[in-house]
Every structure is written in C-alpha cells, then in structure tokens.
Amino acid sequence: MRQDKPGVLLVNLGTPDAPTTPAVKRYLKQFLSDKRVVDTPRWLWWPILNGVILPIRSPRVSKLYASVWMKEGSPLMVFSQRQRHALAAKLDIPVELGMSYGNPSLKSAVDSLMAQGVTRLIVLPLYPQFSCSTVAAVWDGLSSVFAGYRSMPDVHFIRDYAEHPAYIAALKASVERSFAQHGKPDLLVMSYHGIPQRFANEGDDYPQRCRDTTEALTRALGLSDSEVMMTFQSRFGREPWLTPYTDETMRGLPAKGVRHIQIMSPGFSSDCLETLEEISEQNREFFMHAGGEKFEYIPALNDDAEHIDMMLALVNAHR
C-alpha cells in the first residue's frame, strides 16, 4: 500500500543573491522573462529587456537593495527562511522553501521534498491575494518541475487566503500595535502591489481579492470607510495599472487635510525592497514633502507568531 506522507512547499517571489549589479541583473532577467509577468511578444520584448532595461535598471536597483540589505542577507530571504523554520517547528512533516525566481529554486525545494518521500504536497504560495502574475506563476513553475519526473505526488494547491480569519486577525493585531505605539492616524492606507489594468480586464480577480482583504480588515478594526484607503504601488512600464497609485496618493493627501497616516502593504507576506525602500522611504518622502506631518510604516507580518499560526491553520486544513 502506498504510504501517505505529506510535505509543505512555501513559495515566495524571490530575490537577488547579493546587492550587486551582476546578481540583480541575473535575477531581473529571470523575473522579467516570465510571460506571466510581462506578456509582450518575445520578439519585441527581448531586445528591449536585454538592450535597455537590464543595463539601465540593474545598477540602480542594486543600490536600492544595498540600502535595505540585512546582515543575514536580503530581507525577503531572511524573513521567508524564518517563516519556514517557525512553521517546521510546529509540524512533524517536511517543510521547504522555494522561490519562483532566484534561489532556492522551486526545483531544489521539490527535489528535497521528493527525496524525503513526500507523497502529498501542500503548496502554499505566500501571496494573500491571487494574481495571474504571482500565484499562477507558481503553478506554471511547479508544472515545469514535475515535467521532469516519472511520478508526482498528490498536489494540494492553496490559491490564496485573502479573507482567512487567521490572516485578518494577524493583520488586525499588527495595526493595533502600531496605533497603540503612534496614536490613531487620520488615515490608514493599505498599499497593494499593482498589476496592469489589462490583466484585470482579462479576468484576473486580484483587485477584488485586495478589496476583500481591505473590507475584512476594516470591519475587524471597527473603522469607517473614510478612515481607510486602498492604493496600488510598484507600477512598471507605460500602460495603465490599477489605481489609485500609491505615490500620487501620498503627494495629494496633505492638501486634503490628512496630516498623519499609517501605511501597510497587506499583499506582502515578508518585508522586501517594495516595502522597506519604496513604501517606508520613497513614499514617506513624498508625503512629508507635500506637507504631511506624521508617517508610520506598519511592517509586513514576517515571522510574527500570529502569521505562523495562520500558515499552520492553512496547512492543517489540507492534511
């Protein structure tokens, strides 16, 4: 009889191996070559990517990574590894971490789990809100890995957890800690990573999943709609992305009488370049320069105990 042995694969986006131009260039090339991320026809995109974007962006982005790099490494990698260790400590089954881009690769994580005799694979992409550009890319990556196997395990794929009670409870606790420390702001801003508006028009339900999280957290906190705002950050390229844009919002809020804001990025399970540099530094500067008086960034859930308990609940539901 086939023995049932579950195992867990945590997946996040990935990060360069070092805050250097060559490492960032390797990472960006893999990331921006994925058709889930950029679906421009290859014949048009490839010369632009290799001839313009990578040579120009890699040196600049490497400096940004250097500004947030931790002693142990890239913040996203450090926190993702802490999450893996903390979850593994609560489980009696194998837990591995793989990245869609960069190291450790999805293949290395799957190879390790298969070598440990896993027959039922529980895949938890660490993206609270589904998007074709993130969660579906994990599905594609796994399909590519298993294309090289003669056998494969039962796969339990967790699509997302935008409204999961344990996720909302963990976010609520983090906001309440910030309010207790800094006082209640005029406005709580929830900034999510953007996607092209075209993706949503073509069926990606990511915007709705972001609204689901925002509405659930607003209710849990007992806030009114006027005390909360949802925005989208990190747009790339020239086509329209989801609005309102976070950076433009930051520049405009003080003129509307908003002097104190607290901002969080509920779509990021780990702090990374997009939260520590783009939100906490760049957007702080936009807000304060426009006349704002107080700006606090509420960290991602990272390896908070409530966050690990949520992961445990999701995994146990599939055991």
TrEMBL record:
It is an enzyme of class 4 (lyase). This is Ferrochelatase. It comes from Pantoea alhagi. The keyword Nucleotide-binding does not apply. It catalyses: heme b + 2 H(+) = protoporphyrin IX + Fe(2+); Fe-coproporphyrin III + 2 H(+) = coproporphyrin III + Fe(2+). Coiled coil: none annotated. InterPro entries: Ferrochelatase, Ferrochelatase_AS, Ferrochelatase_C, Ferrochelatase_N. Pathway: Porphyrin-containing compound metabolism; protoheme biosynthesis; protoheme from protoporphyrin-IX: step 1/1.
